[in-house]
Amino acid sequence: AKPPRVLVDAIYFRGSSDPKQKPLLRHVIVKDLNKVAIQLKYEIPNAGIFEKKAPMGMYCLFDGMSGAGIPGPTSAEFCARNYHTMLLNCLSELRPGMASASSVEGALVKSLEALDKELLARNPDLVDGCGAAVALLVRDHLFIALMGRCTAILCEVDDDGKKIAKPLGRGIGPLKRSLGDRAMKGARAGGKE
User: Fold this and answer.
1) Helix 71-92 crosses helix 101-122 at what angle (to 10 degrees)?
2) How far apart are the C-alpha atoms of 32 and 116, rounded to whole Å?
3) Do residues 78 and 28 make contact, with C-beta atoms less than 8 angstroms apart?
4) CA dist., res. 45 & res. 99, Å (int)
5) Which of 62-66, 97-101, 134-138 is the least confident region?
6) What is the DSSP string of 119-168?
7) In DSSP terms, which residues pair with 180 in a beta bridge?
8) pTM for the structure as a whole
9) How many CB atoms are closer than 10 A to CB 69?
10) Rounded distance, CA 147 to CA 143, Å?
């Protein structure tokens, strides 16, 4: 199965002018999450939403500004380095007969909760955790999870070539999130109408 055509970008407004300080924001782009799962020996279900080895991509932004100062860059770095394994672990725990859009949403929530718990356990000085904007693309389903002060906007091109920006929500607080499965249709998902 050929993955949809996706363009991902992020904007970062604040930061230190000190080149020695690590950035407060980290981006993670995994264009082929199936390949990473194989390399790390995770078995993703091959039925339901994952049927015929559905193409998967993961796009994340981790915001350490909540814990600005020394913990901020450390928390963003930790999340960027560890989130994909927590997500793959949660996806591999799905039973093949139960691999649906709602179970993928549940895996997203569970993986973010596990990441937040691990981050706070390793960094007791950290009060707020780390903000996150996660987009998981499974075939033509787009799952969004927002945590902290992160927001996400989906930009689509309609049939007339007009660009349309759709806000997907805003995460507020350390554990509140806005989730949604958005099925992308037709040519916008790289397929045929």
Assistant:
1) 140
2) 24
3) no
4) 7
5) 62-66
6) HHHH-TT-SS--EEEEEEEETTEEEEEEETT-EEEEEEE-TTS-EEEEEE
7) 144
8) 0.79
9) 12
10) 14
